[in-house]
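2024-03-11 09:14:02 INFO receiving multi-entity request
2024-03-11 09:14:02 INFO entity count = two
2024-03-11 09:14:03 INFO echoing inputs for audit
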Amino acid sequence: MRWIGEADTTSGVAERAFQVDVGGREVPGIAWLPAGEAAGVDGPRPLVLVGHGATLHKRVDHIVSLAHLLVRTHGFAAAALDAPGHGDRRPDRTADEVQLFGNFLTEWSRPGSTDDVVAEWQAAISALREEPRIGDGPIGYWGLSMGTIYGIPLAAAEPRVQVAVFGLMGLLGPTKDRIEADARALACPLAFILQWHDQLVGRDDSFALFDALGSVDKRLHAHPGEHAAVPPEELLFSVEFLARHLAPAHR
Amino acid sequence: MRWIGEADTTSGVAERAFQVDVGGREVPGIAWLPAGEAAGVDGPRPLVLVGHGATLHKRVDHIVSLAHLLVRTHGFAAAALDAPGHGDRRPDRTADEVQLFGNFLTEWSRPGSTDDVVAEWQAAISALREEPRIGDGPIGYWGLSMGTIYGIPLAAAEPRVQVAVFGLMGLLGPTKDRIEADARALACPLAFILQWHDQLVGRDDSFALFDALGSVDKRLHAHPGEHAAVPPEELLFSVEFLARHLAPAHR
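2024-03-11 09:21:47 INFO inference complete, emitting structure
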């Protein structure tokens, strides 16, 4: 892993780009860390990985908001990666949302897609934990929709993930069986976010995925509205939920 | 309304019994208010009404916990009434839970049952707001199961109820049509709590009631487990949810 440029601290949170090389792929990421007085404090500190949705990228507004809340309110670190074909990994920078969604469906259908993304996250985790200001603290994961498609296999493969927020996904699609098997293997505290009128994911498919999650400690939060209409309330809930499990003594 | 005895402040929260007479019925209640330094501070302050579940009573543990959190954390007032045939209104004090549940089903099937309970709450609201330390502040309602059966009609009849938490109930039972019509009339922010493996209320009936709720601002929280296994997490959520809408500036 190599850092790219200096940290940008203009927001009061230190944001720094990085790149991690996995299996010949250059995967661009961003890490967020406390700035100012807390900047010099070594880890370990909890690290929250944020997986973006299809057609989006590692620095979409709600990811930046989530990262800032985690860093500012709890002193955590956060990190996001561009998924294959997304963000700085788009083969065609002029592709519109429809093309990007088509590319995502193609990639999701490619055998090995899930394993590749899991490997990218695992390489990023190992590299980020070498950074003294992050260190080997507990890890949380937050990712909805495509962030759940790849996040459930990551959490199943990666015992360092101790708490996760999933949602906007169901038992459907080309990796349905993999997602179900990996969901059943999970045992950590989980939150599952569902949109009641999701036009992309059927409610019964979502319930089937919630049912499949192996964790005893799980909760489902649903709000009216379509796929992308998750309210800010659930971002705030996510931050407190992740913090409750990653730094219980901190509270 | 008349107060009964002096307030008990041993818990750090002032708890005082009262009785309100409605249509020839003597309805026993409890009010909770700040004790200590805040005791002398006049209202208006937000008032949260708490309706208990079938076979329970106005002073069941989770109601006391909820009231204490509302009073201690937010300086609110809280009040609970015994429902017909429950608590101090049991015709037979030696009745066991099975008998109490049978009595509840009989009462629920009695025409006029819902109107009577709504009238009891409305009389209590008016009387409590005469108390200077409560005053005419905004009102919230919290009640699951039987507390929802009577709470939805109360909220529909009572514009002073500005936010409510319902749950553990569906579109079923003798007042199903009344509950559905009153649910559709609601417009205030609502939370709906559901137990994923509720042995008394079918999941689809619960979803139908959540769908019927007229409010745009509503959310559903579900947890694994049977009817009575609502986790403390939802009590804490309820307190913050009620506070967010009853005293937004206070936050």
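2024-03-11 09:21:48 INFO post-check: Chain B has one domain: 2-250.
2024-03-11 09:21:48 INFO post-check: The domain at 2-250 of chain B is CATH 3.40.50.1820 (Rossmann fold).
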